[in-house]
Amino acid sequence: MSNVNYPVQLQQQIPPQYQQPIQQPVTSVYSQIDQHYVTQAMTIPPHVRRSAFGLAIALLILGIISIIFGGISFIFSRSFVTLIGANIWVGLIYTIAGSLAIAHHQVPTNVSLLHSFYAFSIIAFIFSLPHFGISVASLVYSYYVFIPSGIISTCLSISGFSLTLAFIVILSKYIYCVNPGATVPGRVYTNFTSDPVQPAGMPYVASQQIPANPIQQTQVGSPVIYPGGTTMPSTAIMNPQSTTMTSEKGKALNYFPR
Q1: Do 153 and 131 meet the contact criterion of CB atoms below 8 Å apart?
Q2: For the whole model, what pTM was predicted?
Q3: CA distance between the termini of the chain
């Protein structure tokens, strides 16, 4: 039986894998927007504060006028409105509510003052309703009362009703009907630049253009030495896009002597 001579050495070099170079991300920053949230304080917002201050002055003046008119009517008229002193005690409540509103405008961070202002606004609103009813009743039974007194009392009650209702709406909308710990969004614009910004601590790697379908030819074998000294150069060429590969061992067996 004849001996089969096998090649002494069959070397194959594994082709290097084709890898795309890793490129560090380069960020182009045009504007950075820092979003932050601020807890809303228990006070009237700045854009409403000026209007609220005007309403406070009007309510204070209304209360003073109501007290003065109630005292004058008590002297010159013996009507039902003047006898119970409706203009006087309602005017006193209007004056207190207006004074608290002005005080809150001067010291907006005082929470106790704010609660007192809100409470007296509600009380003044409630008392303006019977004040209006008494004033209208004095006009109906005009033969018992001094008619100008009933007309002026009606106007004072309507004005007090409107001002106190406005304060209740403002305080409820912006303070008391807001969820506890509510936040107001704000934005701070910083670092405006049009130059690319490389992340800190990372080396800059320039971008490279890589062909979509590269063709690389790599010699994958070395010459095969046989016992008789015969050498066969390896000419196998690998295409990365090919899925088949010629076996060097199978090619070498074709040169064995028969």
Answers
A1: yes
A2: 0.53
A3: 12
